[in-house]
Specification:
The protein is about 60% helix and about 10% strand. The chain has about 650 residues and is of the alpha/beta class. The strands form 3 sheets. It has an 8-stranded parallel barrel, surrounded by 5 helices. A 4-stranded antiparallel beta sheet has the order 5-6-12-11. A two-stranded antiparallel ribbon has the order 1-2. α8 packs parallel to α9.
Amino acid sequence: MPDWSYRTIFRPLLFSLPAELSRDLTLQTFGMLGKLPFGSFIIRTMGHMEMSSILQGNLEQIHIKYPVGLSGGIDPHVKAHKAISEIGFGFIEVGPVTLNKTNCEQPILRDKEKEAIIYPDPYANDGADKILERLKIDCTKLPLMFRLRHSSGSNLKEAFEEICTLSGKVSGYASGYYLDILDELRSIDETIKLCQRLIHFYSSRPEKKPILIYIPLDLPANELTALLHSIPLKGFSGFIIGDSIQTSRGHEVAKAGKNPSIEKIAVIRKHFGKEKTVIASSGVHEPLDALDLIETGADFIQLHSGLVYSGPGLPKRVNEVILYERSRSVKPDAAASFWRYWGWMCLLGIGMIVGGIIAWIIALTSVLLPYDEAFLGMQTDEIKDIYPQLIKFMSHDRITLAGTMISIGILYFILGRFGLRYELHWAKTALLASGIVGFISFFLYLGHGYFDPLHALAAVLLLPMFVLAMRSKGNQTLKGQPNLVNDRNWLLAQWGQFMFVILGIAFAIGGLTISYVGITDVFVKEDLCYLQIPTDQLIQTNERLLSLIAHDRAGFGGALLSNSIALLATALWGIQQGKRWVWWMFLLGGFPGFLGAFSVHWMIGYNDFIHLLPAYFAVALYAAGLVLLFPYLMGDPKIIEYKSSLLHRAENI
């Protein structure tokens, strides 16, 4: 459920349901997907969250691959940990966890205007035993940070014993512990004593795991200061800043929690400097919020309400802006020369464009080449005399193929020039997948026993270029500043991205269908109505006619599938704010294909509405996607960065 589907389709539907029902429905579905044989692959493909050593860090002895964690309030019943771990999280909070189940009969509420989730009881959970039982089923390789909480109303001794018992119960799964021991019913002096006893307890244990003290977001400043001055310097790893503030409606987790988090981080850093780890878990609803918290002194970020309101793409977006900020001090590698790898992809693209133009000219004039006529044992004029519509129909097949070839060439050239040149991982993956499918589709031509020497020659010439281009390492995650805010342009871009993703999927389905028809039945019902020739009669006239037409159809289907993969991969992974070349690639790459498809149908009078309906649908998606993506992709990157910095300053003020 990436942002382009969540913000456009699923969030409006889910927000029409009660908060708890929509949460459970989402997690149940997402969790089921993660448990399927190829579920994790599908989730990774949708998001394409690429690892980078620059993002990796450590919490004492725990290795954390991404600085973004998931708050325990998102998945309190542990239904989707495995699936969630694939969308850019580096660790997961489990909890709050109490020894026994804590029930709450009141409903969870949403406040869309404040982007808030309101919990009547922030400590409601299924109890340690049930949570551990579910962790056995829904396991994840990510570090699990258990937030341990004593029972409500516990005295000092009871609270200590419960936390110690909980630690023993969950130790087999826990990578570290959050000690949620501050209680409004207990004096700060008692809390300090409890904290000191627990630190001593964990220090004496043989297992050495990170221990972080949970600081409620609404803890008064004087109590926080007293706590910081009283706890021992050694024996614990740091602090986790809570995510909820108690109000008259309940405990609110909201975007407004960012500023209180900043205040508490500043107090902690003033007292401890950089010695202790600080995790901030409130108020991150867009990437800029995470940067503000990190700039103040947070080492790691946890997402809660922001994931619900912004979308499941938020962890990836936060990772990207953190990567961008950390990479600014790293000297970039020298640009690769044209002949090293990326230039070969540009040449391959040019070759496809030239080949497509030549094929278009032939399809408009002679239609058949001499070796086509030699294979048939018939001249073009002979076929025209017998079946006047057949040559027009073959021209229709070949022009649509030519337009698709030109489109592929444009996509390859631009992806090579602006993506592969800078070692972008997603661009190499898109070109690799598309190219493999394109070259393999050559064998579809052999389905009916027809060998096309010109196409074989083109494949022989282009394949070495493809192999040379794939020498690229493709080890870069991004180039340029990623998006920082959930502004209007970003929201429009989600709709635009949705259009192009659907277009790419539609082209893939179309390519597979056309290829299948080409190597099996050859014609669809509308084709036969246009030709006014039964297939049997065509075979009786010249059985090789069917093989030649099947060769054209299967080839076009393979080309369309190859085109769809490059388009879909770019739509899924390549839409980054200010990347004008992506918008121009969509525009220029789509135009020849649509021009060829519509012009030849009008030219030969093949205007069956049902037959052309998929093309009308595709061009509508294409046009709408270009319009919706224009403000996001075509904005001046310098202006974007300037506006973002101004907003950043305003937020801090």
